Amino acid sequence: MHEFSMALEVINLARREAEKNMAATVQEITIEVGDLSGVEADAFESALGLLVKDSILCNAILTIVRTAGKGICIACNHEFEMVQRMATCPICHCFPSKISGGEEFRVVSLVVE
Amino acid sequence: MCDTCGCGDSGELKIHDRQTTHDHTHDHGHSHDHSHTHGPGSVLFMNTHDQPASKVINLNLDILSENNRIARINRHVFKEQKILGLNLVSSPGSGKTSILEITIKALISKRRIVVIEGDQQTLLDADRIEKAGAPAIQINTGSGCHLDARMVETAFKKLCAQPDSILFIENVGNLVCPAMFDLGEFKRVVVISVTEGEDKPLKYPYMFQSSHLCLINKSDLLPYVDFNTDKAMEYARSLNPAMEFIVVSAKTGDGMDQWYEWLGKQQVLMSSGTV
C-alpha cells in the first residue's frame, strides 16, 4: 500500500526539481530500489504508472535500478548477500548482521527539458 | 549512435545507470516517437524526443527526504516544548487504544497527555480517548495505510499541547507501512498481543527493527493461547538486540506500572537530550 505514497512523493520530488531547473517536462527518471528497502519495486512501478497521468512525469521513461541486500556479520565481519532482513552469517552462523546495502530508495537522476 | 536504441548521441546528456549502462544524449534535431526500454527499466508512456536542451540532474535523493525533513522539524518542535512524542504501532486489534485509555486514566491527574489518533475512517478512537480524559485529534487517512510527518505536524498544531506533555501518536493499525515513515517521535513503541503468535517479529522485521519498546499486551489471555512470550522476545531481539519489552494487560492492569515507569524515564531522557 505505501508504494502509492512513495509514488506520489516521487512525482512531487520530480516537480520540485523541474521547477528549480525551470524545466517544463521530465524526460527520464532513474530510481534505485534496494531489495531491503521495504518497497516492492513492482508494486511501486504499477503505482507510479497509475499516478503519472497529468503530472510532470506523464511522458517520462522510468528506469528502476535494483540493488541487492548486503549485510556485515557483527561477530566475524564477513560481508554477504542478504535476501531478507533477518539473515544468518554463512561463515560463522551468527546473527544479527548489520545491513550494509540494499536499503536505498532514491531518485538517482532526472533528465529534464 | 546509441547502441541500445539507435538514436544519435552528441555527448551532452548523460544517464548514469550501472545496470542499464545506457548513456546517451537526446538533443538531436529530429523527432522519433518510438517508445523504448532501457535495460531493466520500462517505459511509462510514449517517449517523444523532439525537444532540444535536455539537462541531466544527478540527484541521489532519498524519496522519503521530504517526510524526513518534516519529521526532523517535528522532533525539534517537540524537544523545544518538552513534549515526549511516542509513535504507537501495531497490527489492528492489538489493543493500542485500550492501553492508551487505561494509561490516561491512571496518569492524567499527574501528567499532561495529548493524543493524535490515526485510522482510515471514523472518530471512534478519538472519542474513546477524550472520554478517558485527554485531548485528541483524529486523523482519517482515507485509503492511506499510515501516518506521515506532515499529517502529524498539522494535527499537532491543532492540539495546542502544553509543555511537558506526553504526545501519543496512535498510528494506523498496520505492521508494514508505518515502519517506513518517521513522524518525529522520540521513541517508537510496537504493540503485539498474545493472540497474534510469537513469530510476528520475524514476519514483520522492518517494524521490529525500527522500534525501541515492545509492549506484549493481553497477558491475561496467556493461559488460553499457545503464545510463547520468551520465544517472541528472542525473535524480536534477533532483529533488534536493543529492544526493550514490557508484558502488560490493558484489561487487568498487570504490568502497566512498568509501562508508566518507562514513560517517566523517557521524559527524563528526552529533557536531558539523551536518546
- Tell me the CATH architecture of chain A: 2-Layer Sandwich
Kindly give the count of domains of chain B: 2
- The helix fraction of chain A, in percent, is 25-40%
CATH T-level fold name of the largest domain in chain B: Rossmann fold
Q: How many domain modules of chain A?
A: 1
Question: How would you describe this protein?
Answer:
The complex is a heterodimer of chains A (113) and B (275). Chain A is of the alpha+beta class. Chain A has a single domain (2-112), classed as 2-Layer Sandwich (hypothetical protein PF0899 fold), CATH 3.30.2320. In chain A, 27% of the residues lie in helices and 32% in strands. Chain A has a three-stranded mixed β-sheet with strand order 2-1-6. Chain A has a three-stranded antiparallel β-sheet with strand order 4-3-5, with no helix packed on it. In chain A, helix 1 (2-20) crosses helix 2 (41-51). The mean pLDDT of chain A is 93. By secondary structure, chain B is an alpha/beta fold. Chain B has helices spanning 65-80, 96-107, 124-132, 149-159, 200-203, 205-210, 229-239, 256-271; strands at residues 42-43, 55-62, 84-90, 113-119, 136-140, 166-170, 187-193, 213-217, 244-247. A seven-stranded parallel β-sheet of chain B has the order 5-4-6-3-7-8-9, with helices on both faces. In chain B, helix 1 packs parallel to helix 4. The model of chain B is unreliable at 1-43 and 45-49 (pLDDT under 50). At the A-B interface, helix 1, strand 1, helix 2, strand 2 and strand 6 of A face strand 1, strand 2, helix 1 and helix 6 of B. Strand 6 (105-112) of chain A pairs antiparallel with strand 2 of chain B, so a sheet runs across the interface.
